Amino acid sequence: MKKNAQIEIAGLIIIVVLVSLVLLFTLSININKVKNVVSEQKTIRHTQLRERFGPVLLETTTDCSNKNVRELLIDCAFINQIQCGALDSCAKANQVMSTITEKTFDDFYVFKLEVLKNDAQLNGINVIENTNPPRCGDEKYTETQPAYTNIGSVYGNLVLVLTQCY
Amino acid sequence: MRKKGQIQNMESISVMIIIAILIVLGIVFGFNQRTADLKIQRTEIKEIDATGIALKAGGLKEIKCSSAVDSGAVCFDYYRLKAISEISIPDEPEYYEYYYGLFKKSQITVNMIYPDADAETITMYEYADSTDQNVSTSYFPVIVYEPVTKKNVFSIMEIRVYS
Amino acid sequence: MKNENNKSISKKGQLEISFNWIFILLAGGAILIFFIFVITKESDQSSDITNYQIVKRMDSLLAAVEQNPLVMKDLGHLSSKIDFACQDGLHVYALKEGKNNPELKTQLVFTPESLGDARLWAWTKDYGAPYPVSSLLYLSDSKTLYVFQKDSFVITELYENFADNFTKLNAEISFIRNMKDTGINKYILVVSKLGYQALRNNMGSSIRSKITFVVIDDTNPSLYPGKVAFYKYRTAAPYSIDDNTPGVDYESPYTSEEMLYGAIVTGDKSLYECIINKLMKKNVVVDRINTMRLKALEPKFSSLDICRTFMGGYTISVIQEKTTRAQGFIDDTNDWYIDFYDRVKELERTRNEMLRQGCPTLY
After folding, report:
1. For residue A119, is it left (φ>0), alpha (ψ between -120 and 50) or beta?
2. Which residue segment(s) compose the domain that B50 sits in?
3. Collapsing DSSP states into helix, strand and coil, what is residue A5?
4. CA C210, CA C189: separation in Å to the nearest integer?
């Protein structure tokens, strides 16, 4: 009789243990699922901002004889003729890009904006970035916008690069 | 003998009851998890909603500017934007109904940022009863073109989707 | 005594066993019922979510495709069937197992009456009147065949400008007459009036139920504006063509190539007119926006500036007349679609003049 009762209780304990294991397993899967969905949401929200920033920036008219940012950058990179009061085209472009990025990206937006002439940062143009706190790991997205020259001859390659990470 | 029989009975019954309770608890837990899953899916769909609304707003032919933009940036005509903000209101039911059909429970604002002299905020569309707490916001850079001065103003279109 | 004790013991054992079985049955039954309840509720919710997802994804898909005009897009294989219809003046689509028919309230999508179980294609074109009004989306699948009459120059030209990836054919009347069913769901035959007369009584019986004739008048000096006629075979014996029922108007107006392609892709008068009504409502909205724009621009120019004349009363009155004609576009009792077309042309001329004078243009 005693042995029968012991066997029965042991059986009960086994059932309890099995059910607990199954519950724990389900819980761990669900936690992973939530993580994936949250990052999916971030991707959708940030893509438009990142993809469309460069094209819009380049077309923006400045208060320097109504030249747009593209024209200032081309002048800064290849020609050096435009004067915007006391500033040259490089300084003016810096000022405009700095103002715009400050008003567009809030403190939590981790990004870096570069202007590359033939794959190196354009002299006279500052790299604008907000990497504080630095959170760029593997999740880095880059958008490259070419700044075409509308003058016949080829001066070189000039591109705007916006890197965003989250 | 009598007593042993009763104890035997009680053990069997209690085992059955405990197993039944455990199974029911497991099912209830699983069901709650599934409901939470569906909630997450609904949130995901809302995000797709926000992007869909952003694309619709960015693709509105009736507010596009007349001149082409080299870089392919989305460009709105300033006066068309002002006009749409004045008609997509409940006081103009015919037009409000049309834009509600497109934008549903959302608010679309265009913040004209640079040059500073042209800074202005235009509410392109606003859902009349925006008392909902849950908001999903996305940002969409656009050019706002002033056809008289021929200026391109750097602007951010902010789309807030309520749930 | 011993025997009596033994008997009572064995009876207790029997009672115990039967009591256990009753308990098992009851408990097991309750658990099973609970399971069934949970599974049913779960599958209901799942199918609701699936349909909701399809509707939402369709919405986003249409928005995304509208962003890219003049582009052919492969939408992949659609395994389920979607039916499109005009119900009580509303443009709706029905999913298999769907409870409600979602309405395409603002989307301007031209489709045949049924799509699905085939590869889906999307084609977009920009529509203006004359300023940009909307992107128009044309959806078709690999099992809808568009046949254009080869011996009509006008119709052949329509064939050449028609979406390349839609299933299309340019064929002589003699070929069309002898067509057999090859597993296509729908045949849309784009023919001239003469071509229609040659075909209407001569199509094979196996194929008749799947045919719509879209008849275009190719004898006018100009294709635009015009009227297109839709004819189908009766679904009951003797399966004759339905084109002379008293009181029925088989024709619908169009004023541009985009509308004409819309008529061809839908292959159905009621569906086509449903979408055109939505398009005209959009026209009214866009007219209002452009009128307000002109009124806002006018004071920016001095009274001596020629640009001011373009922003003023005359242009605005042309737009207002166009709006009135848009509101009666489909009306059978008048030819307002012709007046609508004339107003569009007048605004085009105004815009060209504005461009020539260096003024901010209408579009």
Report:
1. left
2. 40-162
3. helix
4. 10
**Is A59–B40 a contact, with Cβ atoms under 8 angstroms apart?**
no
Give me the pLDDT at residue C268, please: 96
In chain B, the number of structural domains is 1
Task: Note whether A touches C: 3 CB pairs or more under 8 A.
Answer: no
Assigned domain for B82 exists: yes
Domain boundaries, chain A: 2-165
Q: Whole-model pTM? A: 0.81
Q: How far is B131 from chain C, CA to nearest CA, in Å? A: 23
Provide the token pair at A11.
């059986």
**DSSP string covering C226-268:** EEEEEEEE-SSTT--EE---TT---EEEE-SHHHHHHHHHH--
Surface of A (32-51) touching B: CB under 8 A: 33-34, 37, 40-41, 44-45, 47-49
C-beta atoms of C19 and B66 within 8 A = no
- Is B56 within the bounds of a domain? yes
* Alpha-carbon gap, residue A111 to A61, rounded angstroms: 23
Residue type, B91: D
Do chain C and chain B touch with ≥3 beta carbon pairs under 8 Å? Answer: yes
Residue A143 confidence class, pLDDT cut points 50, 70, 90: confident
Q: C359 to chain B: nearest residue by CA?
A: B148
Those residues with Cβ within 8 angstroms of residue C291's Cβ, 6 or more apart along the chain or in another chain: C316, C319, C320
Q: What is the pLDDT of residues B64-87, one digit of tens each?
A: 998 777 677 899 999 999 999 999
Decide if B2 is inside a domain. no
DSSP codes joined into one string, C258-298: HHHHHHHHH--HHHHHHHHHHHHHHHHHHHHHHHHHHHHHG
Query: Does position A79 have pLDDT exceeding 50, yes or no?
Result: yes
The pLDDT value recorded for residue B9 is 67
Which of A9, A5, A6, A104 lies closest to A54, judged by CA? A104
Any idea what DSSP says for residue C344?
H
Q: What's the pLDDT score for residue A152?
A: 45
Q: Which residue of A has its CA nearest to B5?
A: A1
Q: Which of C289, C300, C311 to mutate to test the interface with B (most CBs of B within 10 A)?
A: C289
Give the DSSP per-residue string, A53-66: HHHHHHH-B-SSTT
ipTM higher than threshold 0.90: no
The residue with tokens 């081309």 is A74
Residue with tokens 């075909």: C199
Residues of B in contact with A30 (CB under 8 A): 33, 36-37
CB contact under 8 A, C285 and B148: no
Q: Give pLDDT tens digits for C139-193.
A: 999 999 999 999 999 999 999 999 999 999 999 999 999 999 998 999 999 999 9
- HSE, CB side, 13 Å, CA atoms: give it for residue A121: 11
C226 confidence band (pLDDT: 50, 70, 90): very high
Residue A121 pairs in a beta bridge with: A116
Does some domain include residue B54?
A: yes
Tell me the C-alpha distance between C264 and C262, whole Å.
Answer: 5
Contact C289 B84 (CB under 8 A): yes
Environment class of C107 (CB within 10 Å of its CB; exposed 0-12, middle 13-18, buried 19+):
buried
* Residue in C with minimal Cα distance to B1: C9
Q: What tens-digit pLDDT sequence spans chain B (163 residues)?
A: 556 666 666 777 777 777 777 777 777 777 777 777 777 666 666 666 677 788 888 889 999 998 777 677 899 999 999 999 999 999 999 999 999 988 988 999 999 999 998 899 999 999 987 666 677 888 899 999 999 999 999 999 999 888 7
Per-residue pLDDT at C105: 83
To the nearest whole angstrom, how far is the Cα of B37 from the nearest Cα of chain A? 8
